[in-house]
Amino acid sequence: MDIQAGQHHDESVGSVVTLDLAEGEKLHVLHPQQIIAYRGPSSGRSDKLMNIKGMYRKHKLIQADFTGACRLIAALPPGFSLKMIELEGGDDLLYDFRNLFWYSSGIHMRTKLLSMKNMLFSRDVIKMKFDGIGQIGLLTQGLVCQEQLHPTEPMYVDASSVIAYPENAQLELTVYGNHLASQHMNYHFKMTGHGTVLFHAGEHHRRLQQDMNDDGVIKRFLREVIPFGGVFIK
Questions:
Q1: Phi, psi (rounded to 5 degrees) for 43
Q2: Which of 129, 76, 75, 125 is nearest to 103 (CA)?
Q3: Phi, psi dihedral angles at 42 (to 5 degrees)
Q4: Nearest 5°: CA angle at 170, between 168 and 174?
Q5: Spatial distance between the Cα atoms of 95 and 169, rounded to a whole number of angstroms
Q6: Nearest-5° angle of CA 185, CA 228, CA 208?
């Protein structure tokens, strides 16, 4: 399925993405509220409640199905970008539902109930998995990074930045480095396995900006070296 996406970016006000569907092509949009303009027959859009166990934390989730030929124009908030992933069958990645923008026809989305251990680590109950051949669109905060996992050599990834990881991956929630390093970092996923892990950099862009706008090197130093300094020193 060939979907042309043109992105016009302005960091201060967000961005606009244009999606063109050819005759008979179908797109399943999971954040339809972001569609701000549509060109095509009125019957080309059909909304429905998503069939997800428990409607995913008891929210009423709406999915909009678009059938071409048509054009969709979507608005993305500041700091968000669109990442397109090509699936060729046999995909092993488990995705965070919140990052999923759309998926094309030829792909089937299904829920994957996590193990109790992974539920505790990820603070989530289910992930999404795709079967088939086609494309999916991910909404991410900042750029998307993709790294290959190793079966024995662990990779540490900030837990708040993970978008997708292989179903076969072994996960452990931890920190790393010496005592000072482990005191002043977010929890990370220690990952081993086969396949790739996807993560975004948006959270860390904001943290650096906050550090650069901070009001003094002494306060920054005290926050770093004193346990819980970030809580008590404002």
A1: -75, -5
A2: 129
A3: -60, -35
A4: 150
A5: 13
A6: 45
Q: Calculate the alpha carbon distances from 211 to 37, 221, 230 in Å.
A: 38, 11, 12
pLDDT at site 1: 54
Backbone angles phi, psi at 25, to 5 degrees: -75, 150
Of the candidates 171, 169, 162, the one whose C-alpha atom is nearest the C-alpha of residue 140 is 162
pLDDT above 70 as % of the chain: 72
Specify the pLDDT at position 54.
47
How many other CB atoms are there within 10 angstroms of residue 48's CB atom? 11
Distances (CA, A) of 115 to 111, 120, 151, 178, 200: 13, 9, 20, 30, 24
Report the C-alpha dihedral over residues 89, 4, 11, 234, rounded to 10 degrees: -20
Pick out the chain residues at pLDDT < 50. 54, 57-58, 231-232
Position 142 scores a pLDDT of 77
Residues in CB range of 150: below 8 A, 6 or more apart: 192
Token pair belonging to 231:
């809580």
Confirm whether pTM is higher than 0.85.
no
List pLDDT tens digits, range 25-79: 999 998 999 999 999 999 999 998 876 654 554 455 788 999 989 999 998 888 7
Q: Report the DSSP beta bridge partners of residue 48.
A: 63
